[in-house]
Write a structure and sequence with these properties.
single chain; about 80 residues; 4 helices; NCA2-like; membrane
C-alpha cells in the first residue's frame, strides 16, 4: 500500500494534466467555431476573384432594393417602401 501511495504522489502532475486536457480541447474547439463564425461575416473582404464577385453581388442587391424602393415611392406605397 505504501508503494501505491508513492506512485500516486509521483504521478500527481500527470493526473492534473490529464484532468485539464478535456477542458483544453473543448476550449480549442469553441475557439475554432467562433473563428469560423467571425470569418464568415467577412466573406466580401479581400482582393481575390471570389471576393470581387461577392462585392459585385452585394452592389447589385443594393441597387435592386433601391430601385424597388423608388418604385414603391413613385406608386404611392409608402407603407411597402418602409419594409424594403
Amino acid at each position: 500500500m505504501l508503494e501505491l501511495d508513492q506512485i500516486l504522489r509521483a504521478n500527481e502532475i500527470n493526473f492534473a494534466v490529464l484532468a485539464a486536457l478535456p477542458a483544453f480541447f473543448l476550449s480549442l474547439v469553441l475557439l475554432m467555431l467562433v473563428r469560423v463564425w467571425v470569418m464568415r461575416d467577412k466573406s466580401a473582404e479581400g482582393r481575390g476573384r471570389v471576393a470581387h464577385r461577392q462585392r459585385r453581388l452585394l452592389v447589385v442587391e443594393v441597387e435592386r432594393r433601391l430601385v424597388q424602393f423608388q418604385t414603391c415611392m413613385d406608386q404611392g406605397k409608402e407603407e411597402d417602401a418602409r419594409c424594403i
